[in-house]
Structures are given as structure tokens and as C-alpha cells.
Amino acid sequence: MIKQLFKASLLAVGLSAASFSYADAVSDFYQGKTVSVVSPSGVGGSIYKYALLVSNHIGRHIPGNPEVVVEDRGGGGGKKAANYVQNAAPKSGVVIAELHPSSLVVPLIVEKPQFDFSKVNWLGSIAVRPYVGVVWNTVEADRLEKMTGKEVTFASSGVGGSSYQYPYFLSQITGAKLKVIPGYKSGGKMNIAMEAGEVDGRGNYYEGFLSTNPDWVKDGKIKYVFRMGDDHPDLMNVPQASDYMKTESQKQMLNFLEGPLKIGQAFYVHGEVPTDRLAALRKAFVDMINDPVFQEDAKKMKLVIRTRTPDQVAAAVKTVYATPKPVVDELQAMFKK
């Protein structure tokens, strides 16, 4: 299905199989060059591991077989990477970026944003994953409704990141004494802080824990406080964030915040990348996903592959960006508290 939809996207930009006579020009451009895959999160977390996985495999599917390296630009919940890719990085097609899902909503809830994901070119999404808030097994308050007495602390990357936005939002809706502490550069550093008792918990993709700390799941070292996004058979007894929404306004705000979870670990290039190189990169992305070597490596890295096409990602972005302004304004006010 991915290949069929990819062919449709080629036609949408005025390309056809016959027009690939200029493939030599694309090959000539990439030959001898280095392509960077920018990770919006530091080493140690599953977001970084997806960027690493792509950097290890996409090169052999790009005409000219360029060298490909992963580039760590973690910080600010993905804002640092997005600012770089959309404002400072080369626009020629030598920079591929991974979306930090939560940074998708930043331009709508932060004044004077420096990037706009409605103007980038999507290659597709590699994984759509459910999200959970967890506490360490020694923490007694393992539900939001139990966090009314002693304060519970969560680690987060930055105010633009899901690790901050999701638990903070739920604390405001429920009245839970949940303090979210920004400033951790990567998921790995948050995990270390939680295990050391520096914080009580954190938010993360469920399959991120399965990838980076599977023993925590297997041995019950973490307890699940809430879940968001797609259902997962392992999490059916965990309260959904939607369970706590009591008003229509709250439901709309949650739908807005959950929008990025429908996009997942998407990859993109600058909106000004030439159309022939964009087509080649989109084809390389699909060929990479269908490559048995890539699939086997993903299994070894314990990374789930649950894809979305460029058109599907673009449609989800459009839906998020069409959120009514009063809903966005209410969220802005909430995050300024």
C-alpha cells in the first residue's frame, strides 16, 4: 500500500516513471556527499534510535549512495532541531530531519514561532506509537487521582516537548500535584534521573521503554499512570487521558495535543528541496522500509515499525493546524501558568 500511495505522490508533483531520465542528475548530486539525519532528541532515547536506524540504511537507497550520518540536535522538546533544519541547514536535500512529535504543536501555542511544519516536505513516518506517563515502582501515587497530597515530579526535555506538555496538561485538568521539571536533554537522561530517584517519573512512548529499558517493563520497575494515543494490548488497564476530560473544551485541547501521536516518528526535508531530489528521497524512504535488512535491524534494536505515507502525515498536520484559535488560546494560557 505504501508503494501505491507513493506513486500517487509522484504524480502529484508532476513526475512519472518516464521522467526519471534525470535520475542521473540526482545521482551526480549525491555522489560523494554526506547526508545528515538530524535527531531532535539526544543519545539514549528511542527517538534518537529511530534517527540512527534511518541513517544506517537510507544511504544505499539514495541515488549516488552518499555517506549518511546521524546528527544529534536534541533540546527544547525538538525546537532546537526544527529551528536548525528550517532556518539554518542547507536546503539542497543533504539534510533529513526527524520530527519530535510534540514540537508539531509548538508554532500554535508559542508566540512568534521560528518554524512551521505545514511548509516542509514529508518523506513519511516510520512509527506511530502510544504514549504513557509512568512512575518508578517505589512511588505510591500511581494514578493522577492519587496525586492530591504529596507532590510527584516528572522529568521532561523542554516546555515544547511531549514529556512536558502531556503530564502538565493533565495536572492542570485533574488538579494532581504533578510538577514537571524541564531541562533533560534526552530520554536516556530522564531514565537515569528516574532510576536514581532524582525524579519520580516521566512521560514516554510505551515502546520506547520496550526498546531502551525492556527489563523495566518485564520486571515491573515502572507503574503506568496514564496513556494517550493508539490502544495497545499491554495497556488496556491503564487510564486513558480522555477519561479525565469533562468539558467539550478539554476534549478539544486533548485532541489537539494528541495530534502528533497520529504522526509519530516522521521524517522530512526543507520545503525548498528540488522536486527531483525530493522524489528520490521519498522513494528511498519507502525502499528502505521494505528492505529486509532494515527490518531485521529494527527488530534487533527493538524498534516498532508502524508507517504512515507522506500524504497521511501531511493530512494529520493540516488537521492539527486547523484547530480553532480559542482552543489554542486556552492552551497557551494554561502553559503560561
In short:
The protein has 337 residues and is of the alpha/beta class. It has helices at 2-12, 23-30, 46-57, 79-88, 106-109, 162-174, 187-196, 206-212, 214-218, 248-258, 275-289, 292-300, 310-321, 325-335; strands at residues 34-39, 67-72, 95-98, 121-125, 131-136, 152-155, 178-181, 201-205, 222-228, 266-269. The chain folds into two domains: 2-128 and 260-325, Bordetella uptake gene, domain 1 (D-Maltodextrin-Binding Protein, domain 2), CATH 3.40.190.150; 131-259, Periplasmic binding protein-like II (D-Maltodextrin-Binding Protein, domain 2), CATH 3.40.190.10.
What is the fold's blueprint, element by element?
Blueprint: H1 2-12, H2 23-30, E1 34-39, H3 46-57, E2 67-72, H4 79-88, E3 95-98, H5 106-109, E4 121-125, E5 131-136, E6 152-155, H6 162-174, E7 178-181, H7 187-196, E8 201-205, H8 206-212, H9 214-218, E9 222-228, H10 248-258, E10 266-269, H11 275-289, H12 292-300, H13 310-321, H14 325-335
Parallel strand pairs: 1-2, 1-3, 6-7, 6-8
Antiparallel strand pairs: 3-10, 4-10, 5-8, 5-9
Helix pairs in contact: 1-11, 3-12, 10-14
